[in-house]
Amino acid sequence: xxxxxxxxxxxxxxxxxxxxxxxxxxxxxxxxxxxxxxxxxxxxxxxxxxxxxxxxxxxxxxxxxxxxxxxxxxxxxxxxxxxxxxxxxxxxxxxxxxxxxxxxxxxxxxxxxxxxxxxxxxxxxxxxxxxxxxxxxxxxxxxxxxxxxxxxxxxxxxxxxxxxxxxxxxxxxxxxxxxxxxxxxxxxxxxxxxxxxxxxxxxxxxxxxxxxxxxxxxxxxxxxxxxxxxxxxxxxxxxxxxxxxxxxxxxxxxxxxxxxxxxxxxxxxxxxxxxxxxxxxxxxxxxxxxxxxxxxxxxxxxxxxxxxxxxxxxxxxxxxxxxxxxxxxxxxxxx
Length: 335
Ligand SMILES: NC(=O)c1ccc[n+]([C@@H]2O[C@H](COP(=O)([O-])OP(=O)(O)OC[C@H]3O[C@@H](n4cnc5c(N)ncnc54)[C@H](OP(=O)(O)O)[C@@H]3O)[C@@H](O)[C@H]2O)c1
What we know:
39% of the residues lie in helices and 14% in strands. With 335 residues, the chain is an alpha/beta fold. The chain has a single domain, classed as NADP-dependent oxidoreductase domain (TIM Barrel, Alpha-Beta Barrel), CATH 3.20.20.100. The strands form 2 sheets. Strands 3-4-5-6-7-8-9-10 form an 8-stranded parallel barrel, surrounded by 4 helices. Strands 1-2 form a two-stranded antiparallel ribbon. NADP nicotinamide-adenine-dinucleotide phosphate is lined by residues 19-22, 32, 55, 157-158, 183, 211-217, 220, 222, 233-234, 269, 286-290, 294, 297-298. One of its GO terms (cellular component) is cytosol.
């Protein structure tokens, strides 16, 4: 297993992180579920194969994912890096049980600690921006929690480039502890972050944690033009896909991935994951599985690397037009 620094921090995380969103179906039913004995087998296999990094969130099944992760890690839970998140709506009827207010963050951190069975959280992430709370209030609360020893590192998730830049500038001005990571959607079918978010993170020292690197399972080889709805798969269970991408382009890319996989005697998932981890801005790739078998397949990606030529070919067939102002700035980059 390869370990990378989490952004500009000294913390080493495995290049593959195990996501706990699919541990239970409450909350996001269509993502699927596993029973506890399978979760335990998955977590044990992950630990035995060098994964030291686990990601969850308070809203994954309203806390159940955090509880199951803590329980499955058992007496190993203080020897690994656990990331969780705050921001989502934990109670529809309570206007203060959501968002990034000081009140909600302080309450949430204690609830997450209880569910995980831990005294501190290694990486505490803002799940997404809160339009109803001044970011200054949020950043001060995070800084205080670090001083109190309840959280060790902080990160964001699903922020726009300007939101990252604004937050880190305030942290610098106030001499607060800065964000070290940005958890963002990134896959061969979703490269949007390359335009604004990645340059912001590179300039400010945040490492990217890529979520849904297989585009929710689409890039595993089980979907094809002839078999768009394989049995018991996420996209067959969903009425409307959560991730947005062009399915026609997706099927073409899957065909190309199959050819590359054959060359390496590997699987489609391993090629797709290898492409994500080939990027220097990636600190870790957050995978999701619904069985030990899927984890075994996906973890095979750490045993080999794509050649530079194959990375470039995949870059080329999945790239999209650079939006304005990037194409304009490109014209004058050397002047
Ligand atoms: N910050 C955010 O906003 C955010 C959002 C989403 C996720 N996340 C994080 O990212 C993690 C991963 O997300 P994800 O589950 O969408 O990731 P993903 O790796 O893109 O998709 C995982 C799904 O693909 C299918 N799959 C995986 N490996 C397979 C294999 N080898 N063969 C066949 N099918 C396979 C399984 O679904 P089926 O078997 O059901 O088809 C599995 O649940 C989550 O657990 C969470 O920690 C964060």
